[in-house]
C-alpha cells in the first residue's frame, strides 16, 4: 500500500481516554482550529463554529451539568454507547471528556441538513492534526446527546455558543497519558465494484 505522512496519521490515530492533564500550547490549539475550518462542507457552507474550552473550572462545571442531564435523559434508540454513558455518568468519578485539558465543541445551524457531517469532517481534521503533533484526541458524543438539556444548553450559551446553533459533537484534546493499542479492523467493511 502507499505510505505517506497523512496515511501514517490515519493509521496511527487512536481514541485517547487517558490524558496527562498538561495543557496544549497556544500554537497547537490555533493549528487544530485552523485544520478544522479547512474541512470540506456541503456547498462550501462553512456554517460551523468550533469553540475551544480550556478553562478547568468551566470544564468541571460542564461535566457536572452533563452528569445531571444524564439523570433525566432517556436514550431514544438502541445505540449501546448511550446506555453505557448514562450508566457510567452515575459514578462519582465520571468525566465525559476524560479529564482532557482542552475540549473543542462543534456546533452548527440546526436546520442545516449537513450540520453533523460538516462538523464531523472538521473534527476528523482536528484528530489527524493532533496525531501529527503527538497529541491525543477522542470524539465525544455526550454534548450532542444532551444538546437540548436545559442546564447543558444554558451553560453552553454562557461559553459563547450561539443560541441559534445545535451541538453536533466535541473532541477531547491533550497530551497522551496512556497509549491504547489499535483495535482490530472488522472484516467485510469494504466493497469494490469494477
Shape: globular
Tally of helical runs: 7
Estimated share of beta-strand residues: 5-15%
Structural class: alpha+beta
Tally of DSSP β-strands:
4
N- and C-termini, Cα separation: 19 Å
Description of the molecule:
By secondary structure, the chain is α+β, with helices and mostly antiparallel strands. It has a single domain (15-175), classed as NADH Oxidase. 39% of the residues lie in helices and 14% in strands. The protein has 7 helices and 4 strands. It has helices at 5-12, 26-37, 56-71, 80-88, 115-132, 142-145, 150-158; strands spanning 49-53, 102-108, 135-140, 166-175. It has a 4-stranded antiparallel β-sheet with strand order 1-2-4-3. Helix 1 (5-12) crosses helix 5, helix 2 packs antiparallel against helix 5 (115-132) and helix 3 (56-71) runs antiparallel to helix 7 (150-158). The radius of gyration is 17 Å and the shape is globular. The protein starts with a helix and ends in a 19-residue tail after the last strand. The relative contact order is 0.24. The model has no long low-confidence stretch (mean pLDDT 96).
Brief summary of the model shown:
The chain is α+β, with helices and mostly antiparallel strands. The protein has helices spanning 5-12, 26-37, 56-71, 80-88, 115-132, 142-145, 150-158; strands at 49-53, 102-108, 135-140, 166-175.
Amino acid at each position: 500500500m502507499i505510505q505517506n505522512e497523512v496515511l501514517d496519521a490515519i493509521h496511527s490515530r487512536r481514541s485517547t481516554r487517558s490524558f496527562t492533564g498538561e495543557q496544549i500550547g497556544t500554537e497547537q490549539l490555533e493549528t487544530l482550529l485552523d485544520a478544522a475550518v479547512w474541512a470540506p462542507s456541503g456547498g462550501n457552507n462553512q456554517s460551523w463554529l468550533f469553540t475551544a474550552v480550556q478553562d478547568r473550572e468551566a470544564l468541571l462545571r460542564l461535566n457536572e451539568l452533563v452528569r445531571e442531564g444524564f439523570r433525566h435523559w432517556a436514550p431514544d434508540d438502541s445505540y449501546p454507547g448511550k446506555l453505557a454513558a448514562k450508566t457510567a455518568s452515575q459514578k462519582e468519578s465520571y468525566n465525559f471528556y476524560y479529564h482532557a485539558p482542552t475540549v473543542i465543541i462543534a456546533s452548527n445551524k440546526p436546520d442545516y441538513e449537513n450540520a453533523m457531517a460538516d462538523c464531523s469532517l472538521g473534527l476528523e481534521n482536528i484528530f489527524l492534526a493532533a496525531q501529527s503533533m503527538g497529541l491525543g484526541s477522542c470524539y465525544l458524543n455526550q454534548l450532542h446527546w444532551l444538546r437540548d438539556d436545559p442546564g447543558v444548553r444554558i451553560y453552553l450559551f454562557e461559553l459563547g455558543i450561539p443560541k441559534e446553533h445545535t451541538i453536533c459533537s466535541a473532541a477531547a484534546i491533550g497530551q497522551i497519558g496512556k497509549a491504547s493499542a489499535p483495535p482490530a479492523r472488522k472484516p467485510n467493511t469494504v466493497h469494490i465494484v469494477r
